[in-house]
């Protein structure tokens, strides 16, 4: 996002590992005797309120939401063959977690696809299931803003694309 750009109330942004949200305000708060400015980010998925220090914006990976044209790339990632993941569930979990931390929505879509299809084939671990649910929620949160739709409609869209995969 670049550290120089100031955000405004109403800006729609993506926060890695949390999803898309709207800047709902800017507040001053005192922590350890130091007063700092914070962006208040309202995350509609889960009704979460996150406060992000204005002076650390370049370190936290916040970015603008994707342009509508990128939705087709997400559709393609969801429709593509899943990655063949090798190793223990723990190794797969950490590899998927790193992809999600990147903040790249195409990586998040790939994690959602891979884990959803793996779970359909053979039940995944509870840790991977939480990561699958989180990746799907993060993906849907951004698609909801980009497509100006509801979370339910966007989840149905994701599920429809994933349902076209054969389970082998």
In a nutshell, what does this entry contain?
The chain has helices at residues 71-79, 89-101, 105-121, 126-146, 151-163, and strands at residues 12-15, 19-31, 34-43, 48-53, 63-64.
Tally of individual helices = 5
Structural domain count: 2
Rg computed from alpha carbons, rounded to a whole number of angstroms: 17 Å
Write the CATH homologous superfamily of the largest domain.
Answer: CarD-like, C-terminal domain
Strand order of the largest sheet: 4-3-2-1-5
Q: Which spans have pLDDT < 50 for at least 5 consecutive residues?
A: none
CATH class of the largest domain: Mainly Alpha
Report strand %. Answer: 15-25%
CATH third-tier fold name of the largest domain:
Methane Monooxygenase Hydroxylase, Chain G, domain 1
> What would CATH call the architecture of the largest domain?
Up-down Bundle
Q: Give the averaged pLDDT, no decimals.
A: 90
Structural class determined from secondary elements? alpha+beta
Order of helices and strands: EEEEEHHHHH
Q: Note the gap between the termini.
A: 41 Å
Largest sheet: 5 strands, antiparallel
**Approximate helicity band:** 40-55%
Per DSSP E runs of 2 or more residues, the count of β-strands stands at 5
- General form: globular
